[in-house]
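Handover notes (outgoing to incoming on-call)

Open items:
1. LRRCT domain-containing protein: sequence verified, structure written out, both below. Nothing else pending on this one.
2. Nothing else urgent.
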Amino acid sequence: MTAAVVIFFILVRAESKRNFKCPSGCSCSKETIVCVGATQIPRTIPSDTNSLSIVNGSIVEITEAMFALMPSLQLLLLNGNALTTIRDDAFSGLPHLEYLFIEGNKIESITKNAFRGLRDLTHLDLRGNSFQCNCENKWLMVWLKNTNATVSEVMCAGPTDMKSKRLNDLPLAPGQCMSTGHLRGLGFHPNYNSCTVMEWDHIEMKFRRKSVVGCKSVLIDNHVLIIITQLFGGSHIYKFDAQQNKFTKFQTIEVFNISKPNDIEVFQIDKEWYFVIVDSSKAGLSTVYKWNDEPDRNDTGFYTYQFLHEWFRDTDAEYVQVDGKSYLILASRSQSPVIYLWNKSTLKFIVHSEIPNVDDAVAIKAFRLEDDLFLAVTCYVGDSKVLKWTNKLFSEVQPLPSRALWFCSLSALQIDTTWLWAVTTRSPKYFCGMQMQRCLKSLRIFMCSHLDPFWQ
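LRRCT domain-containing protein structure tokens:
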């Protein structure tokens, strides 16, 4: 694209913002619009508006893709309107929405796919509505119990025997509303640290994949464990039951400050086992968990041990040992990767340093060549890189072209003296939302040996 074309688009966008007329009954600033008493949703607003509030109006329904022309919204407030229902895909086209307030309306039911596509949602307020706690809303009861978003108390307005009870506290009888009952299957391959969790959908009559984002196996004494973290449905530990010859749920992981898990890393320090759940939301905290085994006190499992930095959108974690010390590296979409050092006095991680000149990192993988430690970094924007540990810091060895490719996964494999670094990517041209299996895939292999530099 020539400089002239770029300047043209910038001028067109600037002109459109100058021509924007704040809707009647609204007040508008650079990135915020507040409307009071509105009868409809504004249709023409700047695409970079990140906050829209429509309060004390007469809007009665949210239909499919009603806010699709507002892709930058991070906050949407619809309090005090006359909403009675929210339709499927009502918020599609809002991938960055974090805060959703629908308080003080007349909502009795919400269709089961209403919140589909809200990947970054961290706060939801549904107070002051007229929810009917029946089979039609059972999916919502399940969703409230499993979501990682912070949700206000939702009270039942009916039927009579349910009135004034909390929707998310209601018992779910096994034989009730069978159309949305759950049946889970777990597949696991011990050599690849991967697993698949499937859920039976009684409406579509087929298994569907659950939202697993991280899965690790670990053998601790006589415990064979699989640790699973997922976007929806909470995070859990499964243990192999020799008598039943299958994995069964062993523990539900505490997620006090986990809003949007993105990865999991298991490691051992001084014979003690730990794992970290990486949180990719600014509202959450990447959290370290420690194994505790006290069967006499019925206290066996992993429990919260340490919260790491705030306001980072962490994407990946890698644990390394070098020069007799233990380090935990956290990649981030919003900051440079951070290196934590294990403090042997406090038995906690402390900030050691940052990795400069690495932006928007989505995956990291450490590997060794003879006595040297390297770190492969995949970036969402710009080229990927290989870094080398020198003088207690990582410094760049070589950039690896990966522009215009969207990250999928990163792995490394050593064959004799040769390392293979595989980055599975997808072309943006074929991006199709959550239907990732339909997207075009390509495989880029990077190799190195103790004699040759990295080459593609």
